[in-house]
Amino acid sequence: xxxxxxxxSYTNEIPNLFTxxxxxxxxxxxxxxxxNAWANPNIDYESWEKRLDRTKPYLAVIDDTLVGFTxxxxxxxxxxxxxxxxxxxGVGKALMNHIxxxxxxxxxxxxxxxxxxxxxxxxxxxxxxxxRKNEIxxxxxxxxxxxxxxxxxxxxxx
Length: 158
Ligand SMILES: CC(C)(COP(=O)(O)OP(=O)(O)OC[C@H]1O[C@@H](n2cnc3c(N)ncnc32)[C@H](O)[C@@H]1OP(=O)(O)O)[C@@H](O)C(=O)NCCC(=O)NCCS
Fold this sequence. Notes:
With 158 residues, the chain is an alpha+beta fold.
């Protein structure tokens, strides 16, 4: 597996992975209606393409197959998803260590994420600490997530 910079050959694979991962792995913590509000199965590829050109995610790939991706800009971790068939194999850890390397190179002192209920413990295992519980209203649904922060000063990479 390697972590690469975004390129446009993955423009459709990224929203496919995002949508599949949410529907297949977050269904214990969220209802079907909430999952649809979070990740509409009717994917709007055009708006994703615009978003990805702006956020330029980092991609985890195995033999050119996308197995995970994350967006990290300023001090904020936006999307962070690992393909359901590749979870528990170190892909998330590799993406997180990539973020921590970039943060270290750019002298970023603190980073922040709005984590799903599903992923909260993953971020906590890297030392992130909850600072807020959020109720996100979307399509007549209310989705719970948590803002977590990680102080990067004096941090040793996992
Ligand atoms: C959460 C997620 C990103 C983790 O990725 P992953 O590739 O499965 O994680 P890894 O295999 O790299 O695990 C890294 C470490 O985190 C721990 N970990 C992984 N998922 C965990 C979880 N849900 N709870 C607690 N610890 C977890 C692992 O035990 C491992 O610890 P170790 O290094 O001591 O063995 C992935 O499961 C996922 O995409 N989940 C669903 C989508 C989602 O909610 N994304 C986040 C939106 S904010």
